[in-house]
Amino acid sequence: MSKKLLFFDRHKVEEYYLYEPETNLLEVWIRTTSGLEPIAQPENWISPRLGTRFDIASGRLQLYKPDGTKFYTYIEVNSLLDQERDRANQATQRFTEAEEMLQKYRDRYGELPD
Predict the structure, then answer these.
(1) Separation between Cα atoms, residue 102 and residue 80, nearest integer Å
(2) 8 Å CB contact between 50 and 62
(3) Are 50 and 85 in the same domain?
(4) How many structural domains compose the chain?
(5) d(CA 14, CA 57)
């Protein structure tokens, strides 16, 4: 990791983050006049550049947008997509059933008058 840190320091990166999920360790470096310097207390860190909050208090890293809403994980996004897909399928099924009912009505009573 020291090579990466040196590379980013040399290229004037403003912030550098390193997270180890197995140990829930977050390390943060921020650019100062002397280069990238480590932050002593990165718990609940808010990036001055991004406005993003990094919270590790729950035992895993959670990111929050500047407005306080959380960034969803890949798994959470896929779960939400599955839920929306199921909801859309159910709505399509209800629409199909309503069309079938309307067709039965038309077959039995004819078209509605204008």
Answers:
(1) 33
(2) no
(3) no
(4) 2
(5) 25
